[in-house]
Write a structure and sequence with these properties.
By secondary structure, this protein is an alpha+beta fold. The chain has twelve helices and twelve strands.
Length: about 400
């Protein structure tokens, strides 16, 4: 059998503007420590943190499983080297940086351990005849071992072939180069530019460097500082003083240097508000809701789809999901309003609502509340007739 490597197109090399590198080889992978672009770092930090801090739960049908063998493995202790948060964070960070991330399963039928695999250690090959995938993992001593596909969790988001993923950073090549060039220009202006409050011109004289220094010092001693503020400037007829203004074009560039930030936010599915760019006509709570439903839900699906595929049987109606309760808790006031509505609507019991607000349970709080102002449509006529009859009986009495 002949195997071909499954790699990204060499023409889509990882970005010099994003990571410190001197190669166009797409087989070279880089971690978060290599990022030197603050917007990309912020985007990855936000997304990886929110994915990592959301517990993964098992559903049996529509019901949450009370006890399952996967919860501790995925959320608490996947292996002896790291906790669940950092495993999910590393997987998400590599997914966003490189388009792919990997974890090795010790036993797909009865998993006890998940090990994070670096992208630089992984090579994916595909049989040209059967399409079978083979994962090869190399160690620091260049020893390589083959691992079957069912022993590998392979997470990918944007994919052209369904087998390997493509980094979202590939679409930001031009924007990041523009941002890098703009930042260099601003840094050069403040580092090398001639910045002065004004020009003191001495007419009809040929001064050496020492004389110029003496005149400058005496002039500043007489006129500069808070003690000389608003005082009259006195010069002899041989001197002219002209104040200088800061280049307004540079100030405009500094104030408008957020175009690339907006492009980065767009590619990662974030709001510009999350990258520190002010937004208009959008509340924080609405922005957070759009972020969860329009962005995070897609990344959640990347993980749950692979977990369902590798761990669960499609016949037993089980599935994984992320618990997003923490993310929906925008602020204490909003949380309280949502809990009150859920309790009053009969969705949550009083104690379930109190638990969401980190309050202790109370006696009699385990029953659902129902409003007497609501009735099923089929019973509306009977309800109204009974109400009218009770009214008539009260009048007759």
């Amino acid at each position: 059998m002949f195997f071909k490597p499954v790699k990204q197109d060499p023409g889509d090399a990882f970005l010099d503007a994003v990571v410190s590198m001197q190669t166009d080889d797409s087989n070279v992978y880089y971690g978060a420590k290599a990022i030197n672009n603050s917007d990309v770092f912020s985007a990855i930090r936000i997304l990886a943190s929110d994915v990592a801090s959301s517990p993964i739960q098992l559903l049996r049908g529509e019901t949450l499983a009370k006890q399952d063998k996967y919860y501790n493995l995925l959320n608490n202790k996947p292996n002896d080297l790291m906790d669940g948060f950092h495993l999910k964070f590393a997987l998400m960070a590599n997914l966003l940086l490189n388009g792919n991330s990997y974890a090795e399963i010790d036993d797909p039928n009865d998993p006890k351990e998940l090990k994070f695999i670096k992208n630089s250690s992984m090579t994916v090959k595909q049989d040209e005849d059967t399409g079978t995938l083979i994962y090869e993992i190399s160690d620091s001593r260049n020893h390589t071992r083959r691992v079957k596909p069912d022993h590998i969790l392979h997470f990918k988001y944007f994919s052209q072939d369904g087998v390997t993923g493509v980094s979202p950073l590939m679409s930001l090549r031009d924007e990041l180069n523009i941002q890098k060039s703009g930042n260099k220009m601003l840094a050069g202006f403040y580092k090398n530019g001639i910045n002065s409050n004004g020009i003191l011109k001495v007419n009809k004289s040929d001064l050496d460097a020492e004389a110029k220094g003496n005149i400058r010092s005496e002039f500043e001693k007489s006129n500069a500082g808070a003690g000389n503020s608003s005082r009259t400037l006195v010069m002899d007829s041989s001197m002219d003083y002209t104040p200088l203004e800061v280049n307004t074009d540079i100030l405009k560039l500094v104030n408008s240097n957020d175009w690339s930030s907006k492009q980065i936010a767009k590619v990662f599915g974030l709001s510009t508000y999350q990258l520190g760019v002010e937004e208009n006509h959008s509340s924080v709570s609405q922005t957070n809701m759009n972020y969860i439903n329009g962005t995070l839900s897609h990344y959640f699906n990347v993980f749950t789809a692979e977990l369902d595929f590798k761990f669960l049987s499609h016949a037993d109606k089980q599935s994984f999901r992320f618990n997003t309760d923490r993310l929906f808790s925008v602020d204490p006031e909003t949380t309280t309003e949502n809990v009150i509505k859920a309790v009053q609507g009969g969705v949550l019991t009083i104690n379930e609502g109190r638990k969401k607000m980190n309050l202790p349970a109370v006696d009699g709080g385990d029953s659902l509340l129902v409003s007497l102002n609501y009735v099923h449509l089929d019973n509306m006529d009977n309800y109204q007739n009974n109400k009218d009859n009770k009214g008539e009986n009260s009048v007759n009495e």
